[in-house]
């Protein structure tokens, strides 16, 4: 299987996570919004890295590896200009993932994420759309 085929599968999976985040937002399941938003960003980021044959650690926060894209001439300038802000989003959501998924162990319930959940979804949606645009431009595919 080619890298772009794997990347397309990954970006589609990220889209399903994003859809789950949207539904969780509609249902006011605030912790699920954060968790699903993080998973959407993680899957989509790994899809981009796979498409470009960039190795990454098997961890949730791959923001450090992602920053190499800012220096690559084969990446469109519009995207290179977004790398730093996207990298910050990757790290921010990865930091909250565990708490969103397992906060109950510390006595944290869904309400803890009430104010942040819409922001998490908005950030994930932004990252996802930028990645789709990038894949479509670089690889001449329609997603």
State the oligomer.
single chain
Q: What's the alpha carbon Rg, rounded to whole Å?
A: 15 Å
Helix and strand pattern: HHHHHH
Structural category is: mainly alpha
Q: Helix amount, in percent?
A: 55-70%
The DSSP helix count reads: 6
Largest sheet data = none
Beta-strand content: under 5%
Low-confidence stretches: none
Please state the average pLDDT score: 97
Based on Cα principal axes, name the global outline.
elongated
Distance between the termini: 18 Å
How many strand elements?
Answer: 0
Short description:
The protein is an all-alpha fold and 143 residues long.
Question: What order do the helices and strands come in, and which of them pair?
Answer:
Elements: H1 3-27, H2 30-51, H3 63-66, H4 77-80, H5 83-102, H6 117-139
Helix pairs in contact: 1-2, 1-6, 2-5, 2-6
Task: Report on this structure.
- The protein is mainly α and 143 residues long.
- It has six helices and no strands.
- The protein is elongated.
- The chain starts with a helix and ends with a helix.
- The model has no long low-confidence stretch (mean pLDDT 97).
Descriptors:
143 residues; mainly alpha
